């Protein structure tokens, strides 16, 4: 159907969002991996379509978002090195962990993540990259040029905890990937590991990753600000996912919290 719309209206399939309203006035968006019949469409259904404008693949945008911080973080570090100032153990460790974190994100984007919506609006790339790239540069300047020294032992402990959080986050993403058959948008109740206690443990592990990063770098202002912005957004996403699980699955475990095990 989207191909026919493209021929008629000259609107590419990726720019089309098609939906209809049920008798209960519930909006149902047509999914790309389902037939019209599977989506509940019949001869009497009145479909609506919106032109979403220029689109970019989600995977491409995510790669841009993550490659930028990976590269930009090195600039203040090399400035520090060129000034012949002593490079602290915590600054070396912060650089290493930053690289590990963003390399993991890039690899996950290529090999792990399945994107329900295949594209996002073209203009979003500028907003998203400004956020990630700007904060990456600000955090690196803060950590490498204006940092407060932290005891090496404490840095090592926090670094180990951060690595555990990174690995745990990655494992949660793999569990979500294994839950969904390749090439489909089928949803099921996540199980295993931290999913037994919380609806979105991948967000919880991401939050802990940045808590430990800030701790080992002396809680830099821009590092804390970046984390708070991320926590706010992840809380919103987690709450939406938690509520959607309850709507879609009547047997969803009642003991699971939204974001933080046993607390929230």
Automatic annotation (TrEMBL):
Keyword Lipid metabolism: yes
Record has Transport as a keyword: no
Ranges for domain 3-oxo-5-alpha-steroid 4-dehydrogenase C-terminal: 118-264
Main subcellular location of this protein, as a coarse class: membrane
PROSITE patterns the UniProt entry points to: S5A_REDUCTASE (PS50244)
Location in or out of the cell: Membrane
Pfam families named in the record: Steroid_dh
Membrane topology, record value: Multi-pass membrane protein
GO BP, one annotated term: very long-chain fatty acid biosynthetic process
Keywords annotated in UniProt: Lipid biosynthesis, Lipid metabolism, Membrane, Oxidoreductase, Transmembrane, Transmembrane helix
An annotated GO cellular component: membrane
One GO MF term attached to the UniProt entry: oxidoreductase activity, acting on the CH-CH group of donors
Transmembrane domains' residue ranges: 60-80, 130-147, 153-176, 210-232
Family designation: Belongs to the steroid 5-alpha reductase family.
PANTHER family for this protein: 3-OXO-5-ALPHA-STEROID 4-DEHYDROGENASE, VERY-LONG-CHAIN ENOYL-COA REDUCTASE
Name of this protein: Trans-2,3-enoyl-CoA reductase, putative
Species for this entry: Entamoeba nuttalli (strain P19)
UniProt lineage: Eukaryota, Amoebozoa, Evosea, Archamoebae, Mastigamoebida
